[in-house]
Amino acid sequence: MTGPGGPAERELEQRARAAQSKAYAPYSKFNVGAAVRMSGQIFEGANVEIASYPLCVCAERNAIAAAVIAGARNLEAVAVCTSVSPPSSPCGACRQVLLEFASDPKAVTVVAINPAGERRSWTLAELIPDGFSGKELP
Ligand code: THU
């Protein structure tokens, strides 16, 4: 885990907090907000659940989708807000999706927060070490 960051990181955390309030999670009641900084801009996502459970989409992946359709491609930092203690980290599927847009996973900070003010952070490389990426494809 890495230590807490500066004002830019706090802004990203604030956006993840705001996004959490937009979650649609009537089945799990586990509301998640995410904010990603990509190509210098911040994009928000929240989890969206569907009665056919496998169709649920995580907050992180919805944030990435918002960034991609806005033309941003380079992942710089991630914040995820849940209401549990300790703050929960991104699921495995989301780690793979985040990796897709990280040119240097060691330089991408992922911070998990909750409304109680707890914070955990890692680099993306720590969360998905030796991950599969497009570089492996012939
Ligand atoms: N969820 C996320 O949004 N992000 C994660 O990294 C973990 C799980 C969502 C999916 C589902 O809507 C709810 O949390 C419970 O798993």
Number of helices: 4
**CATH topology value:** Cytidine Deaminase, domain 2
Q: Please report which band the strand proportion falls in: under 5%, 5-15%, 15-25%, 25-35%, 35-45% or over 45%.
A: 15-25%
Counting DSSP E segments of at least 2 residues, the number of strands comes to: 5
Structural class: alpha+beta
Helix fraction? 25-40%
Low-confidence stretches: none
Order of strands across the biggest sheet?
Answer: 2-1-3-4-5
CATH architecture: 3-Layer(aba) Sandwich
Question: What number of domains?
Answer: 1
- The CATH class is identified as Alpha Beta
Ligand set? tetrahydrodeoxyuridine
Produce the secondary structure layout:
Elements: H1 7-20, E1 33-38, E2 41-46, H2 59-69, E3 75-81, H3 92-100, E4 109-113, E5 119-123, H4 124-127
Parallel strand pairs: 3-4
Antiparallel strand pairs: 1-2, 1-3, 4-5
How would you describe what is shown here?
- This protein has 138 residues and is α+β, with helices and mostly antiparallel strands.
- The chain has a single domain, classed as Cytidine Deaminase, domain 2 (3-Layer(aba) Sandwich), CATH 3.40.140.10.
- 28% of the residues lie in helices and 21% in strands.
- The chain contains 4 helices and 5 strands, in the order αββαβαββα.
- A 5-stranded mixed beta sheet has the order 2-1-3-4-5.
- Strand 4 and strand 5 form a beta hairpin.
- The radius of gyration is 14 Å and the shape is globular.
- The termini are far apart.
- 37% of the residues are buried.
- The model has no long low-confidence stretch (mean pLDDT 95).
- Tetrahydrodeoxyuridine binds next to helix 2.
- The site of tetrahydrodeoxyuridine has 13 residues, from helix 2.
